[in-house]
Each structure stands twice: as C-alpha cells, then as structure tokens.
Amino acid sequence: METKDPNPFMNRLKLKEAMYLMSQGEDLDPSTLNRILQTVVPIPDSKIRIYLQFLNDSWKVLMSDWENTTLHTSQLALRGQGNLGAFRVHRQVAGRDLDFVFQPNPEKNQVFLSVEASNADRLSAKLFLDGTPVETLPKLGTQSMFDSPITLDSSPELAIFESGKEIGRYHFMLQS
C-alpha cells in the first residue's frame, strides 16, 4: 500500500481498494489493519478555518465546519462614516459563547477582529500572523479588539485560552 496521499479522494479510493482486497482473501490481523487505516484515514484537525471573501456589497463566509454563509453589509452596517459594516460570527467553545466581530476597512484589504465572550473571566486570546504571535488579549472581559489587522497577504490564526490552556484555534483567510 502506498503512503498517505494529501488528496482526501485518493485516500478514500485506497481505503476502498484495501477493503475490496480484504473481502476477496483472508482477513488482516488487527495490527496490519490499523497500520493501513492510519495511512489512509485523515488525522482529525482541531483547527477551524474561516474564509472571508468580499464580493460587491456582501461578505461571503466559509467555515470548515459550517455551511457557506453570505452576509450583506447593508443589513449589518454600524453607525459612522466610511464604515462598510461589521458582522458577527457566533461560535461555542468549551461551553462558552464566543462572538468574532469582523470590521473591514474602506479599501476592503484589511479586517479588524474583536472577540467577545460569555464568562470571560479566565479567557485570553492570542493573534498569530504567519505563525508568529503578534498580539495578546490577556482578559477577554476587559479588552476585546486586536490592533493588528487581518490582511490579504498574511496567514492569521487566533488561539483562545482558558487559564493558560488552549481550548480553540481558528485560521482566517481574507480575499477581496
């Protein structure tokens, strides 16, 4: 059997082939079967990817664990001049309600992020850009907005911590 392929379709095809071959001959011993399954079945990833795309006057939001969502900025606009409208994405992490509020700049090439949480006493958040930690919000209850924007050319990640232990990680991608 070949090694694990980065293409999930090919991994499923290899698994089907292995299952077919098993049905035609003798059963494999459990250790060999586990070894084959480990090379084919994808490893679960706890990181959630959020893809933000600005199209005309709406934001398209794709999430790795949700269906596609389109948010229209005219329906979600905040008060103020030059404001394209913020939108809120609600998530639940470790029994707590988290809201990610995305505020785009007028040029549509940056998004400012704030994180609001229920029971935020022991919660903190850390923003990573291209794998490097750039900003930390030590207490989500007192401060919720990051000063560093999410840009088109960066690879931002947000980690949520409870009492210093990571409870959630989010990867953001921006396209206009």
Question: What this model shows, in words?
Answer:
The chain has 176 residues and is α+β, with helices and mostly antiparallel strands. The chain folds into two domains: 8-40, no CATH class; 47-175, no CATH class. It is 18% helix and 43% strand. It contains three helices and eleven strands. It has a seven-stranded mixed sheet. A four-stranded antiparallel sheet has the order 4-5-6-9, with no helix packed on it. Strand 4 and strand 5 form a beta hairpin. The model is unreliable at 67-83 (pLDDT under 50).
Could you tell me the radius of gyration in angstroms?
Answer: 21 Å
Instruction: Give helix % range.
Output: 10-25%
Q: Mind summarizing the main beta sheet?
A: 7 strands, mixed
Strand proportion = 35-45%
User: How many extended strands?
Assistant: 11
Q: How many separate domains make up the residues?
A: 2
Broad structural category: alpha+beta
Strand order of the largest sheet: 3-2-1-11-10-7-8
Specify the number of helices: 3
CA distance, first residue to last residue = 42 Å
Outline the low-pLDDT stretches.
Answer: 67-83
Which term fits the overall shape?
elongated
- Mean of residue pLDDT values: 75
- State the order of secondary-structure elements, H for helix, E for strand: HHEEEHEEEEEEEE
